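Supplementary notes for students who missed Thursday's class. We covered one full example, reproduced here. Read the sequence, then the structure, then the short commentary at the end.
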Amino acid sequence: MSNFLFGWMLLAAPVPKDAVITQQWREFRGPDGTGAYTGPATPQKWGPTTNVGWTCPIPGLGWSSPVLHKGRIYLTTAIKQDNGDYLLKLLGIDADTGTILWEKTAFTAPAKTAERMHKKNSKASPTAVTDGERVYIHFGHLGTAAYTCEGNEVWKTGRYAYDPMHGNGGSPILLDGKLIFSCDGNDFQALIAVDCKTGAEVWRTDRASKAKLRFSFATAQVIDVDGKKQIISPASDFVAAYSPDGKELWRANYPKPGWSVICQPVYANGVVVISSGYVNQHLVAIDPTGSGDVTATHIKWTYRKNAPNTPTPLVVGNELYSISDSGVMVCLEMKTGKVYWEERLKGGGYSSSPVLVNGKIHCTSENGSGTVIEPSKTELKIIQENSMKERTFATIVPDDGALYIRTESQLFKFREKK
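Structure (token representation):
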């Protein structure tokens, strides 16, 4: 076979949708928000003294996850001052050494504005996102900003102040040169898109919510349906799909009440799966091909028993793996909602989302217990159990043969010792 023909065949060969080869972990739950990594091998054993590449003490507190691009880590945190105010910061960290290269204060949040927050939340819970030119940070009602990858301010705005009830939570996403995030407060509810270069508002779509309790914190997800992009964004009592220009395409109501929605939607096997939030939490699977109110026509299945409030479920092939906040993992068939098994994990409560690392599920509990799991429809197959020995709410980040885990006080890099 000629080199030309062989090269052409390689270029023409289809790439699996879930393949992640060269993309870095530049947003919440990684490339395309799928929570899946394929690349150089990462350690399955980790802990404060096991396979540690470096540790970096992080000032203040935040439950956001790190994002990476070209050897640089970007991480947000909130530092409380003696007068009760908070400095909301972006850190630039060297991924090779763990050295903080720079830190920038994006906003100063007055104590009265910042303190209203759920006890499990932090002032810096949303994860940053980067397009390789700029890093975008979002502190919910406290402000949104963009910096260059060298830490120079590009723009910032506090125009989207709202009554958040429990603090900030949802992470921003990128689409076609726009930064997109939801503002679901007690007072107003909207999906917002701003220009990445200038921070100017591109569009704002009112939720037209009739929910009794309207505050929610979910990260949106972009999916492709028949060659057209949809922005899936859950709110209290319903989930809606929006076009890239902000027009509502469809909405589906879930079992009420469903408020304080946190989980990011997931999409595979022809269905979108969301969690309906607190009090009456359900996993709800929706066919995204409809228009208008599709509640009666396009909801494929619901699942109630151990549905999550906080950890986003993970798709592995045809299965959906979900962890309840109380620590019960369930494996379901993605298309039908058939339950294969339900088993309790060690470690108590869960807030971070599971990720798929070279075919193995990695997750951490709120007390720092870590579990590595072999996906299986027949039973819970635990490969390895670990412990960070410190509170851990941030989601694990795999990148270039390493794992990054943020605990209450530090950022760890784990790499297999040779």
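Commentary. The longest helix spans residues 3-12. The CA atoms of residues 242 and 248 lie 4 Å apart. If anything here is unclear, bring it to office hours.
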